Amino acid sequence: MKQKRWTRRLMGLFLSVAVFLTAWGGMAVGAGAAQPNLQLAVKSAILVEASTGKVLYCSNPDVPLPPASMSKMMTEYLVLEAIKQKKIKWDEKVPVSEYAFYIAKMPDSAGVYLNMGESHTVKDLYKAMAIVSANDATVLLAERVGGSEANFVAMMNKKAKELGMKNTSFVTSTGLPTDDLGPYAPQTEQKENMMSARDSAILARALIRDFPEALEYSKIPVLAFREGMPNEIKKKNYNWMLPGLLNYYPGVDGLKTGYTQAAGHCFTGTATRDDMRLISVVMGANGETKRFEETKKLLDYGFSNFKLTKQLEKGAAVKGYETAPVKNGVDLTVPAVTGEEVTVLTKIGEDTKFTPVVTFQDLNAPLTKGQVIGKVAFKEEGAKDSDYLQPEDAAKAGVNLVAGQDVEEASWIRLFFRSIIQFISNIFSSVTGK
Length: 434
What we know:
Elements: H1 2-25, E1 44-49, E2 54-59, H2 72-84, E3 93-95, H3 98-104, E4 119-121, H4 122-132, H5 135-146, H6 149-162, H7 197-210, H8 214-218, E5 222-225, E6 233-236, E7 252-260, E8 264-273, E9 276-285, H9 290-305, E10 306-312, E11 323-325, E12 333-338, E13 342-347, E14 354-360, E15 372-380, H10 391-396, E16 399-403, H11 412-432
Antiparallel strand pairs: 1-2, 1-9, 3-4, 5-6, 7-8, 8-9, 10-13, 11-12, 12-16, 14-15, 15-16
């Protein structure tokens, strides 16, 4: 009998633990809300809605792992930034360096086989980097922007901090392991770039937010390099989820794959459907197509379970906050309306409650119609900062409120009589106690 009771107790304990682990496995990290068991065969993953920064799914999102060529998203960012700042030009030609030529000759290294004596435009080199992950083109761009790869890597790490990437450290511009770089290897104990899935999503979001033209290149299925020349080469985009490629998925237009032996197969993807953009990251998949199969699971889950819902039209007033106070104006208040359409992310089939949070600036006349006078955000009931890609996403949520009409500055005599009336009103209120 004792043995049977002991067996029953052990079974009860085992079931309790199993229930706990099942419940724990179904919780979104930091979100306190259930998420599906997608059975992703990866080391880490994250799925984010781009406009809100809301995390829809995550697994080990903050573990630093080798990102391989997903590192090139940062190189793309810095190259595009240098073009915007007019430090380099799209059409300027860059001669092939000895370092780039060394990388071009590496066996099994993605590239466009740059040769000494050649020069290529920044645009052609950028396309080679973004479309076919060309390591030789990447180091050539890094040298052009930074003066040397070492200087450029310092720029990469600085920009990572500026963007709020807390689990990232770069040692190369390409994502290649330092052991592969021979005489060009940096003198560092760190052998691989390191980046978490969350940081990869932060970087991808920043890239397409600050430089949306990046998607015009990342969505190209096939690269033609040295086009029209005898040594022209054509290569397919390593992102096989693009149209005409093996793992095509409707709406995908980026962004960057990666592979090294240490990293496994990685992919930071992005896709749009019904005006909603999702950003997905998978790291450490075991197989070239596996990373796309796991990405499909993430995108299918996001698009089938979430949608952007309109809360207010552009030019609409927020109930309870229809006007804002104005100092020194002919009018004492100004109509407050939304500067653009207000949308919120909702889960399909659930009645999510949102509360408007309105802040007005300290307004002084004169004001012009359309001038920003405040902000409105719709806060989801029960939502926390940890539900977002970055804590500031919750604070930055919302759209501008603008003045619905002009407000002229009041004359001194109007302000004088207004102050007298206010003075008398204050005396009356103090006497009556009202």
